[in-house]
Design brief:
The protein contains 9 helices and 3 strands. The protein is mostly helical and 213 residues long.
């Protein structure tokens, strides 16, 4: 239940600020109320769901201000993780980065929000690529935070797709970041990674503002 509700939030099937009624969810998934409550409590502790004494559970809100705040934190943490991975990563780390880059480059990026097996496979490989870049960081907690921020930004990226956001050529961007990382060039790798992150956020920002006009 946790995985399914979380996926529905990320995919936009459960929009921002929408109410999450335990009985309705239990009927939808054909389960008891206890698994739903446990899932919502966990999602609340992770920031995906908001719990109110009067209103019950609802999906966390979404705003341009929060989007940019998430991006700032994401850039800062991933920079620290990438720099340390470049410094301490071994040949196995290099192979992981290059292999994950090759795997995702072989697939065409989904251009819309259709939830297909191919789209989910691309999303999984995309997450794996970004995780590989910081995987040699010696702080497991930092790596976990980077992955959490990836998921939170991914929710906004999918919101952008519902509003017609165009896709940038991430295949070329991924290759450039991977090449700089394995070449042990932290300044170039960090610069490319931050630009990669910020380009997506700028596109989502523009899509949201355009939809409000």
């Amino acid at each position: 239940m946790y995985e399914q509700i979380r996926a529905d939030i990320m995919n936009g099937m459960l929009p921002a600020e929408s109410k999450l009624k335990t009985r309705n969810l239990a009927e939808r998934f054909d389960v008891g109320l206890s698994p739903i409550r446990e899932a919502l409590s966990r999602l609340s502790s992770e920031g995906w769901v908001v719990q109110s004494d009067r209103r019950g559970f609802s999906v966390v809100s979404a705003s341009i201000e929060e989007l940019w705040d998430l991006n700032r934190a994401r850039c800062m943490l991933n920079e620290a993780g990438l720099r340390e991975s470049i410094e301490y990563g071994d040949a196995e780390w290099e192979e992981t980065v290059l292999l994950s880059c090759i795997r995702i480059s072989r697939l065409q990026r989904p251009a819309d929000l259709q939830i297909t097996a191919e789209a989910e496979h691309w999303n999984k490989l995309h997450r794996a690529f970004h995780s590989s870049l910081v995987s040699a960081c010696r702080s497991k907690r930092l790596v976990e935070y980077c992955e959490k921020l990836f998921d939170e930004i991914e929710r906004y990226r999918r919101i952008g797709l519902t509003l017609g956001k165009a896709c940038n050529n991430v295949a070329d961007e991924h290759r450039a970041i991977a090449d700089a990382a394995v070449a042990r060039d932290p300044e170039l790798a960090v610069s490319l990674l931050n630009k990669h992150f910020t380009t997506t956020v700028e596109q989502v920002d523009q899509a949201i503002q355009k939809s409000d006009t």
